[in-house]
Amino acid sequence: MGKMEMITNTSPRKGVNNVHPTPPPLPAKAPEYGRKGIFMSKRSAATRYSSASSTARDLWDSLFDGGYRADVTIKTDDGGIIYAHANVLGMASPVLRGMLKRAKGFGKKRSISIHGVHQDAVRVFIRFLYSSRYKYEEMKEFVVPLLVLSHAYAVSSLKRVCEQQLEHGLLNLENVVDIFQLSLLCNAPRLTLISHRMILSNFKAVSATEGWKSMRNSHPGLEKELLESVIEEENCNPQNQKEKIRKSKERKIYLELFEAMEALVHICRDGCRTIGPHDKDFNQNQTPCKYRACKGLELLVRHFAGCKLRVPGGCIHCKRMWQLLELHSRLCADSTSCRVPLCSNFKEKVKKQSKKDEIKWKILVKKILRTKRIGGSVSFIASSTSMSS
C-alpha cells in the first residue's frame, strides 16, 4: 500500500496491455509574425509575436459595432455617444480601468467621458482597443489625436503604430511643428528626433507655416531653442564650415589691406622710425609705432625707391607697391592735399581704365570698407606729396 509500481514490458499485469499507448500529437505551432517596419530586428522564435486570426479580429469588430450587451457609454465633447464593454476597456487600458472603477451609472451600466477629441477619432481609438485594427484613411486623418489618446490612456501598441505611421509618410512640413511639440509631451523620443531633423533640414519652409506661428505665441522658449539648434546645425555642417573658413580668410586679407593703407598714410604724413617725408626730423627716442603693417611696408617702400625695374610687371615687389598706391588713391578723399606719392596721378588714370578693371577695383574697395564697417569714404588727407627715405 502506498508503494508505486512501474508497468514495464517485462512485468505485465493482468488486465493491462503490455503495449504502450500511442502518445497524442503535439499541438500545432502557431504561425510567427515579426513586427514590420524599421523597428523589426532578427528575433528568436521564442520572442516573436503571434497574430490573432482574421476571424477572431472580425469577431471583436462585430462586438464593438453591434454593441452586444455593452455596459459602458462613452461621451464626447461634440455630444456623441459610443457604446463599449467595461471588460475590454479595462483590459486594454489601465487608465480606463481606473475611470470605470470611479464611474457612476444606472444599474450595471456606467458612463465615462473623453474630452478634447472629435467623436470620430474617439471611435477609431476604441475600435483599436477591441481588435488592434485601423483604416489607413482614418489613421491619416486622426493620427495626431490618436497619438494623444494613446499616450493619455497608456495604450502603448497604438502609440507605437502612430509613431511608425508618422515616420513613414504622415509627418510633413505642415504638421511637423505640432508633432514635435506633441512628441515632447507624449514622451516619444524617436519621434522627437525625426521631427527635429525635419525642422532643421527645411527650416525656411517650416518657419512660414501656421504651426510655427502658433508655437511662437504659445511657447516662445521652445522657438528660441529651435533657432539655437538651427544655428548650431549650420555651424556643424562641413560645407558651411568650409564656407566660414573661406570667408574668414577673405576678411583677413581685406583687413590687412586696410591696415596697409593706414600705415602708408602714416609713413608719408608723419614718418615712422627711419622713413618718412623729406621735411621730417627723426630722433632715436621715438615712441613705438602702433601700426602693425609699418614694418613690412617700410621694407617695401625702401625696395621700391631703389629698384631698377620699378615699372609695373618688371618686379613682383614693385608691382605690389603700385597696386597699394592705386588702392590708396581710390580710398583717398582728397588727392590734392594728400602726401602719398602719385595719388592724384592715379585719380587721373582711373578715368582712362577699362570698364572691366574699374568694376574689379570697385568690388575690392567695397569689400575693404565693409570689412571695417566704415560708412563712407576713408579720408587719408595730408599736406604734401613728397617723401624721402
UniProtKB/TrEMBL annotation:
Residues 1-32 are annotated as: Disordered. Pathway: Protein modification; protein ubiquitination. InterPro entries: BT1/2/3/4/5, BTB/POZ_dom, SKP1/BTB/POZ_sf, TAZ_dom_sf, Znf_TAZ. Gene3D superfamilies: 1.25.40.420, Potassium Channel Kv1.1, Chain A, TAZ domain. SUPFAM superfamilies: POZ domain (SSF54695), TAZ domain (SSF57933). Pfam families: BTB (PF00651), zf-TAZ (PF02135). The keyword Signal does not apply. Transmembrane segments: none annotated. The keyword Repressor does not apply. GO terms for molecular function: calmodulin binding; zinc ion binding. Residues 70-138 form the BTB domain. SMART domains: BTB, ZnF_TAZ. This is BTB domain-containing protein.
